[in-house]
Amino acid sequence: MPLVVAATPDQLYLNGFLRDAQALVKELQAKHQPGTPIFLRPTQGATVQRLVDVVAQLTQHNLAPVVLAQ
Amino acid sequence: MMEFQAFAPHRRHRDTTVPMINVVFLLLVFFMMTSQIRPAAPVEISPPVVELGQGQPPGATALYIDAKGVIAFADLTDAEALAAVTRLPHDEVLNLHVDAQLKGYVLAQTIAQLGAYKLRLVTQAAPNTRGGQ
After folding, report:
1. CA–CA distances in Å: residue B131 to residues A48, A63, A69, B126
2. Is B24 strand, coil or helix?
3. What is the C-alpha to C-alpha distance for residues A50 and A53, in angstroms, rounded to an integer?
4. How far apart are alpha carbons B57 and A12 in whole angstroms?
5. Residue B12 carries which DSSP code?
6. Which tens digits make up the pLDDT trace of B34-51?
7. Model's pTM, two decimal places?
């Protein structure tokens, strides 16, 4: 199952379920297979700055690659 | 009674102004020869800020998207700009200069329209860090 992170201006969802930033990272670390992409989907008007912040947060925890999805 | 002042031979003062002007002109010529004038962005953007960076990406083809979603490439905008970019070779590296306040879905749509290119999102370092990209 692909890992899809949806970013709103102030919230994060993993595969449709609301997660805070720490829980999201922990869950991704548990589920993510190295080399497989994590899809990042901007929703509800999330700005590019918000996306960059999320990507920075994920890559800090070696969660990569992050792919921007529509 | 007569007072005599100690004999002090008159020393000629060398004029130091001319060598200084020479040096200033040499520096001016040096910087004119070695500097590159960066072309102005066709649209006004404020790039997103990141805490950690890897330095500015090297020069590549630049595509600009401002906060309202206006796409600019060279002197073209919107559909014409996209059409011009898609005519570039697909091994071309595209630097995306995107405004931080642009809606993320607009960026995703634009990237989807571009097709297969190696894209780099240009960011700026946060003021409290020094790094770059």
Report:
1. 20, 21, 28, 9
2. helix
3. 5
4. 29
5. P
6. 988 777 788 888 888 876
7. 0.71
Q: Cα-flanking dihedrals φ and ψ of residue B59, to 5°?
A: -55, 135
Q: Do A47 and B103 touch (CB under 8 A)?
A: yes
Chain centroid, CA B57 distance in Å = 11
Partner-chain contact B104 A69, CB within 8 Å: no
A5-38 pLDDT tens trace: 999 999 999 999 999 999 999 999 999 988 899 9
Q: Residue B38 and residue A39: Cα distance in Å, rounded?
A: 35
Interface test with A, best of B105, B109, B122 (most A CBs within 10 A): B105
Query: Does A42 contact B105 at a Cβ distance shorter than 8 Å?
Result: yes
- CB-neighbour burial class of residue B121 (10 A; exposed 0-12, middle 13-18, buried 19+): buried
Question: Would you say B133 and A70 are in contact if contact means Cβ atoms under 8 Å apart?
Answer: no
Give the list of residues 6+ apart from residue B71 with CB closer than 8 angstroms, or none.
B63, B64, B65, B77, B78, B81, B82, B110
d(CA B18, CA B131): 42
Phi-psi region of A16 (alpha: psi -120 to 50; beta: other; left: phi over 0): left
